[in-house]
Amino acid sequence: MKYCIEVCAGSVRDCEIAQECGAHRIELNNGVHLGGLTPSIATLIKAKEVTTLPIVSMVRVRPGGFHYTPLEIETMFEDAKHLIKHGTDALVFGFLNADSSVDIETTKRFVDLCHENDVEAVFHRAFDRVDNPYSAIEALIDCKVDRILTSGLKSTAQEGLDLLGELQSKYGDKIELCLGAGVNAENAKELIERSGVTQLHGSFKGWYQDPTTKGNDVSYGYSELGDYDGVDPVKLKKMLDTVNQI
């Protein structure tokens, strides 16, 4: 496999679409519109029934930032143990101190939990909130993190390309990078060629309808574009076709 396309999946159906379209890896979440939260164990179990792709399970107890209380950290470790027990291939997480530096002690303990159970440890876009990406990536390397999901400290990977290329050149032989945020078929070629990174992450978002979402002056929607979001197979196939031609 020359390139890896990782699909951000918020449901079992998203996992089915990723498998059917020929994606290479799944990041399994709940609440994708909130940046991704820990999926239920049942979602992981059913996802493994419908796909043979490697599954990276999110461990994130709430929306917002990544400086957690002791109880939140304890909960995330318990979530991690259950996800490992039910067959996740990797865990994706991020722990920061109040000053936005990497929480090395918690990160190290979490990585150890992963590796003791032959599960990959992936640090997510909490990395994009650090002030010094060089000291942060070196800390993650020291913690033996396997991979970082990052947009290069910018809102999109396109905007962060200069730093992404620099990090890949300097540290790519020590830790894997996967580019995320605003990744699509239109910019995939440039992202790969300019950064040197071969792993891309995207939600390939489409919008779906549910007739019970609105009525009686009540709405359970969260966007004017549709009632809920999920992977759009057309966008994903276009992405895979584009990458396969590079």
What does this 3D model show about the protein?
With 246 residues, this protein is an alpha/beta fold. It has one domain (4-244): Copper homeostasis (CutC) domain (TIM Barrel, Alpha-Beta Barrel), CATH 3.20.20. 37% of the residues lie in helices and 19% in strands. The strands form three sheets. Strands 7-6-5-4-3-2-1-8 form an eight-stranded parallel beta sheet. A two-stranded antiparallel ribbon has the order 9-12. It is globular.
Question: What's the short version?
Answer:
This protein has 246 residues and is of the alpha/beta class.
Relevant terms:
246 residues, alpha/beta, two-stranded antiparallel sheet, CutC-like
SSE arrangement:
Layout: E1 4-9, H1 12-21, E2 25-28, H2 41-50, E3 55-58, H3 70-85, E4 90-93, H4 104-116, E5 120-123, H5 133-142, E6 147-150, H6 161-171, E7 176-179, H7 188-195, E8 199-202, E9 205-208, E10 214-215, E11 218-219, E12 228-231, H8 233-244
Parallel strand pairs: 1-2, 1-8, 2-3, 3-4, 4-5, 5-6, 6-7
Antiparallel strand pairs: 9-12, 10-11
